[in-house]
Design brief:
Elements: H1 2-17, H2 20-63, H3 70-76, E1 78-81, H4 95-98, E2 101-104, H5 131-147, H6 152-157, H7 159-165, H8 170-203, H9 212-240, H10 244-273, H11 279-292, H12 300-315, H13 327-363, H14 369-380, H15 385-413, H16 426-429, H17 443-448, H18 450-466
Antiparallel strand pairs: 1-2
Length: about 475
Amino acid sequence: MKRQVFLISGKELKGLARQNSLKILFTIIMVLLGFALYAGHIAYKQQKIMVETAQKERRAEWLDQGDKHPHIAAHYGTYVFKPKTLLSLFDFGLDTYTGTSVYLEAHYPHEFMFRPAQGYGNMIRFGELSAALVLQLLLPLLIIFITFQTFTKEKETGTLKLLVSQGVSIRSIYLGKVLAYSIIVFTIMVPFFTGLYIVGTIENTSSVITDMGVRVLLLFLVYIGYLWAFTNFSVWISLKSSSARNALLTLLIFWIVTGIIIPKTSANLGETLYPLPSMKIYKEAIQNDIANGMNPNETKEKRMARLKEDYLQQYGVDSLNQLPLNFEGIQMQEGEEYTNKVYDFHDAALYKKFELQNRAGSLMGFVAPYIAVRNLSMAFAATDWYSFNDFQEKTNNYRRHLIRSMNNDMAKNSRYGEFYEYKAGRNLWETISDFKYLTPKVTMIFKYYGMELASLSLWVLIMFILIPSSSKNKFI
């Protein structure tokens, strides 16, 4: 049986090699992959240089701001820039939508600015040409065009009956054809991911991804599983179809529905089931809780009165002037801590809705494997929602550390009622280290993307089940 499978596979490859139209399609896919990778690499290097330059300039501005009161320095603030992850040159993911920089200052956690998608207009709705997009949608389209008549043509010419009458099982023929088309997929995938790894090795000296090799390997396995399942399904449809026209129509409908319609519908469904508050309502709720407290016992006046009483009792003094610390600094930091508490509460509720929306979309991966592969691809490339959320969290922690350091210095080194008289200098500014970011380990992905891994595994398992047994020759 193995010999039959290899003979049929060789015959299929020779037949494909003689078809000029397929050679053209194959060449187009390879050119698109190469161009997408090259363009992604250029974009990565350009943004990397811009981010590093801007970060150095902002760092120099922070260190050279001169002598001033620490709280004024906290309002002077600084900028943090989101570094371009190395594998974003393969899959842009959400980088286009999440913004590239954020301003850090006291009292106000600002939003990320300079979202590249804002400069593209409505054309961004059609997506950007990335290597990931080519593998997710265009390569399956190539597979459709080379497999839709693999069985129907042999049925029409009588070749299939002839092979079966000579003792060749349908299973052997089926496996031989799947093997042939899988070899074509491997011919595309292996050089591409080898090139991606080589580029990554060259550029990885200052990358924010520390486990790049593991991520590239996992990307390769995900796409191999996805494309093998698509290949198997396409051959199975050709086996079951009565004509090449019906097979092509069925496969194209499947490609459109699972690759375009269902992903768009699932996104709209998530937004409908778990709607997000408007930005105006969201901001107003935060400001109301900061001003009036999250409950009646947490109004600003009550909190400050309790804080004052606690410090007077702790140090056994009668007035704020007698405290060994500047109560203004303590008061300002208390305000920051409560503001952080309010933002954390509202952000958690908002992120919960985002997660529910994402989960609704992830469930559709059991119907449309494209969704599972798209999500896993962004995750392994560190351009997904959770990776951005991790960067945002670490940026927020850095901001809180900066403000806390300024307020604490004010409390320890100045006197109550002498706000503008105390000035700090470069020695204090240097205690705030420059912001550095590394992506979480790839193991984080398995925590958040279990549903995608399960749905893709299920599709691969179903394709194994669809492989005909040797006795199923009755449909010829």
